Amino acid sequence: MYRFAPSPTGDMHIGNLRAAIFNYICSLKEKSDFILRIEDTDTERNIKGKEKEIIEILSRFGIKPAHIYIQSENLKFHRELATKLLIDKKAFACFCSEDELEAKKEKAKNDGAPYRYDGTCERLSNEEVLNNDKPFVIRMKKPQSTMSFTDAIKGELSFEPDAIDSFVIMRADKTPTYNFACAVDDMLEGVTFVIRGEDHVSNTPKQDLIRQGLGYTQKMQYAHLPIILNEDGKKMSKRDDASSVKWMLESGFMPEAIANYLVLLGNKTPVEIFTLDEAAKWFDISKISRSPAKFDLNMLKHVNREHIKIASDERLKELGLDKPNLARFYTQEASLIPEIKEKIAKIYSPKVAPNEYKNEFEIIKSAILSLKPCESYDEFKNELIKATSLKGKSFFMPLRMLLTGELKGPELSELYPLIKDDLKEIVK
Ligand code: GLU
């Protein structure tokens, strides 16, 4: 069972979408389920409406979760299982105040040593705990030995107990931390494989430790995805437009193309252009490169053009491209849906005569309006030359303007078959 577990705290980043897509493709390949879990337990950072947006974005990419879970609805299980860990002495109540902890962190900093929780509250007796009425958090006891796991991309990774430390699993307000809610929910929801960004590598042994503490024995498999760099080689941040999935969709990239491109990133694939269903036949998460992938907008544009070329008429119409053949043809001139729409709209809009060719423009226009239908461009051109006695630039420039609304553009002989039935409408 695979899952995607976004937090509804901001616009979806392409790194998140990439994780969603990889999880989804793997679930198709393994004929296993894919679920969506909205991780909304950090109430201060939640943004209203984001979960709806996440679901909508996934559906535009054709990603259909078998089930949608809302993490906060599991709160009773988080509380119950944290209590179980306390009773079983896998976790302990910690009464240290923020100020006390801050002072210890400051001291560690001055001593040049990494800060670790010093175990003060782990040593409290049952009476001392029960008679204490100060607010408390619950901490997991740090492991007694090295913890390791095999990452499908990074290989074997090991963590010393000190690096894991006695970390907080329940806050003083009785809400779970990310690591606890995530570990418990993955267990309760039957997740067996976690694919997520590499910023979570250090959380993984903590989540394994929690499940071990709860007596859960099902082994979790992991793949942590390298970060995506922008074109300057820096980590792609919110300041990079292309990091936002919304920006990409609003700019006019097709979801099919974005998905295809994200599968190509840092990967060796048997073909360059594919659908997610096709990718599910050969996708192998262990083939993803260990080094960061570099985002390349030109490559994405290329993939977008290729997807416009292979899309069905219905799909192109859905995207507002009412003239599918012209849309495919204009991929030689433009990459984004709005740019292509504009080119086609220009063909069908009233034209203004270019200053240098005002007379020729009118002459050719009336010639076209009274011309018999011509099958081929050559026939059309020859008939027009015969009727107007124009030639060279003073023929082709106004003709191009009449047919396309521009003075530069594609080969008219290639364009002609696509517009020949609409000539009278176009030349107005
Ligand atoms: N809510 C976490 C995030 O969006 C989930 C990470 C995970 O997949 O475990 O980063």
Automatic annotation (TrEMBL):
- Where is the Aminoacyl-tRNA synthetase class I anticodon-binding domain positioned along the sequence? 312-418
Q: Where is this motif: 'KMSKS' region?
A: 235-239
Q: What is its main location?
A: cytoplasm
Q: Which GO terms describe its molecular function?
A: ATP binding; glutamate-tRNA ligase activity; tRNA binding
Residues crossing the lipid bilayer are none
Q: Give the matching InterPro entries.
A: aa-tRNA-synth_I_cd-bd (IPR045462), aa-tRNA-synth_I_codon-bd_sub2 (IPR020751), aa-tRNA-synth_I_CS (IPR001412), aa_tRNA-synth_I_cd-bd_sf (IPR008925), Glu-tRNA-ligase_bac/mito (IPR004527), Glu/Gln-tRNA-synth (IPR000924), Glu/Gln-tRNA-synth_Ib_cat-dom (IPR020058), GluQ/Sye (IPR049940)
**Reactions listed under catalytic activity:** tRNA(Glu) + L-glutamate + ATP = L-glutamyl-tRNA(Glu) + AMP + diphosphate
Q: What class of enzyme is it?
A: ligase
PROSITE patterns named among the record's database cross-references: AA_TRNA_LIGASE_I
Kindly state the positions of the motif 'HIGH' region in this protein: 6-16
Record's keyword terms, sorted = Aminoacyl-tRNA synthetase, ATP-binding, Cytoplasm, Ligase, Nucleotide-binding, Protein biosynthesis
According to its UniProt record, the EC number is 6.1.1.17
At which positions is ATP bound?
238
Example GO CC term: the record gives: cytosol
Q: Does the keyword Plastid apply?
A: no
List where in the cell it is found. Cytoplasm
**Positions of the Glutamyl/glutaminyl-tRNA synthetase class Ib catalytic domain:** 3-301
GO terms for biological process, alphabetical: glutamyl-tRNA aminoacylation
Give the protein's biological function: Catalyzes the attachment of glutamate to tRNA(Glu) in a two-step reaction: glutamate is first activated by ATP to form Glu-AMP and then transferred to the acceptor end of tRNA(Glu).
Record text on subunit structure and interactions: Monomer.
Q: Which family does it belong to?
A: Belongs to the class-I aminoacyl-tRNA synthetase family. Glutamate--tRNA ligase type 1 subfamily.
The protein depicted here goes by the name: Glutamate--tRNA ligase
What is the species listed in this Swiss-Prot or TrEMBL entry? Campylobacter mucosalis CCUG 21559
Q: Which gene encodes it?
A: gltX1
